[in-house]
Amino acid sequence: MQKLFLLPASLILVLSLSGAYSEENKPVEISNAWSTFVCYNATSAIKMLAFKNGEKLSSVSRDKGRIYIQMDKKNPNDFEVAYFAGFPLKTASQAVLRIDGLQKFLLYSHPEPQNSIEKAYAWSHPNDDKNLISALKKGSEAIVESNSHTGKVIKDTFALSGFTAAFNSMTRKCK
């Protein structure tokens, strides 16, 4: 279970600085909604909704939600799926990722975050990564519902168009 929260330091550093889209880290390929950065893929939310006590909020101060798929260079059959919420998640909570409203996967926020970076991420369980990636390849839309540390419910919608091409590109380039 510890592997679940050990996203490699290099990726966290890049992502924490919102550098996934910076000049130094331009994508090597873009496939519709997904970008390939050698050993990881990334996409941004196309719709972000927030609710407090069941009421839709008109705006919330946060960064844009993103999903990352990282490939382990040393083990090309090992992948990690991470959700960047763009705000501090409720500690030790679960976010729900639904694909086309049919398949559901749980993402886990850090149980004891040490810094603001760890507070903003949720990861899939390593045993779910292959099934989740397979579902992402077949789907057209993913919605992640998470809980903020302030009690807001956030629903981020992601387009899955281009995911398969981006994923295949990453697996070819990350060697």
Task: Walk me through the topology.
Elements (H helix, E strand, L loop, with lengths): L8 H8 L12 E3 L2 E3 L3 E5 L2 E6 L2 E2 L9 E7 L2 E10 L9 E6 L3 E7 L6 H4 L1 E4 L4 H10 L2 E7 L5 E7 L3 H11 L2
Antiparallel strand pairs: 1-2, 2-3, 3-6, 4-5, 4-12, 6-7, 7-10, 8-9, 8-11, 9-10, 11-12
Largest sheet: 12 strands, antiparallel
Beta-strand portion reads 35-45%
- Helix-strand category: alpha+beta
**Number of strand segments:** 12
Shape: globular
**Architecture, according to CATH?**
Sandwich
Helix content: 10-25%
CATH class: Mainly Beta
| SS summary, helix count | 4
**Quick check: average pLDDT?**
87
- How many domains comprise the coordinates? 1
Taken in chain order, the helices and strands follow as HEEEEEEEEEHEHEEH
Rg over CA atoms = 15 Å
Low-confidence stretches: 7-24
Here the CATH topology equals: Immunoglobulin-like
Distance between the termini: 26 Å
Widest beta sheet: strand line-up: 1-2-3-6-7-10-9-8-11-12-4-5
